[in-house]
Amino acid sequence: MKEWKRWLPGAVISIGLIIAILSVVDLKAMVAAIRNANYVRLSIGLAIGFVWMAIRGMVWWTLLRNRGTFKDVFWSLSAGYLLNNVLPFRLGELGRAFLLSRKSDLKFMEILPTVVIERVVDLGFSAALLLAALPFVVNVEGADRAAYIVGAVVLAGLLAMYILARTHQWALDLFHKLSARWPLLQHAGGSFLESFFAGLSVLTDGWLFLRFLFWMTVNWGTAIISYYFIITSFFPEATVVWAMFGLGMAAFGGAIPSLPGAVGTFEGVYTYAMTVLSGDESTSFAVALTTRFYNYLNSMVLGAIGLSIQGQTLSGVYQQLMNLRNKQSND
Length: 331
What we know:
Number of strands: 0
Number of helices: 14
Oligomer: single chain
Strand content: under 5%
């Protein structure tokens, strides 16, 4: 019952957005747009998506200080993206950390901070894309304010994690002092914090963090190119700004509570972004659905291979994650 209550708000938002989209688009025009798309450009955009996934693997491997093998990191990441598309509450983020902990000598709580850092910086890049694209986009009131707010929150979050990483020994000593009366809590919590702080230590290594930002920049640049090819398959007049604006909006849409895989929210914000730029709701919806297919193609193909290589199944990983969460709650 508790899980249902947590799941319900996202489902309501997703279903509401889907109904809203279907009420304004012409489905016949949308189907015609898909039929008349430039499939050569679409194929290029979809192929670049697989390159994007490999570069994203380099992003995470860099954050992990190249520990573990790139192969294990890549397939764990791919499986995590698949899990995000089919499981609620973005369990894929926990799932990839869990899967990698089983394939390497890295601890789960040592891996998890790198996922947090990666996602926080992702939000920063999405805010930067929006701010860069907005001067060329009209009729989008409040988007610049939202981008500035997100950017400020991202910087504050990174600063807080940096301070925590720099003062980790003080934080550990304080925890041990406060938990002295509860030996079990002190032991479990101390081990948890030590692993967590070890994962945050990447923020205190300037050269390593610059390498991470380099690969993250390449990764987002690759995504822009891929989105550009997909968009121009439907709108030949589109520019790179369209891809930047659409990608930035899509990233924010992924942060809205929704059904697994941002169903409804992704289509809603992406259709809106393309409509603002083109004035054509139906073709914009066709672009959103095609981009959705692009996202699913990457995650389903590579994720299924990743799970197979690790000898896992979707239901098996979900059950193990629930057991892990219950264990953490009981501890």
